Amino acid sequence: MNTRVFTSPLFLGFDHLEQMIERASKNSSDGYPPYNIEQLSPISLRITLAVAGFTMDDLQITLEDNQLVIRGRQNEDCQGRVFLHRGIAARQFQRAFVIAEGIEVKGAWLDNGLLHVDLVRPVPQPVVKNIPISKGQTKTNVAPTRMVDGESQNSGAQGGVQVARYGE
Asked: Is residue 154 part of a domain?
């Protein structure tokens, strides 16, 4: 079922947000492995996943289209072992986090069954741009232009406006 969130004409160009919301809802269904997201400072975050039993060789971290994807796959080396009870999960997983544009992955490390991934979110500098307002003109010397065979052509006005083509 595809439900559009941003249907108002006021939200033109927000299709990428809709796609991110859809991706996030797909990724939130499975609770394994459990994780924490903590804010260490105003610009840094840490994601911690509980990956007991996984080694560094069993884990893979990639950044794909603003998604931080963490995968785990254990090599089952149980030959010759007899389990009376097997309660420790040894299944593969994939956990994806949609991250904002501009967030950088600074590093990752494995410590006592916890995988830590540090992220940095630089503080955006506010950009304020003043747009000059010019006085409206009721009469102009601009001749209307029309497209002929993919080229812009002046329709014959003698007003001193020159029409330039792309690439000139």
From this structure: no
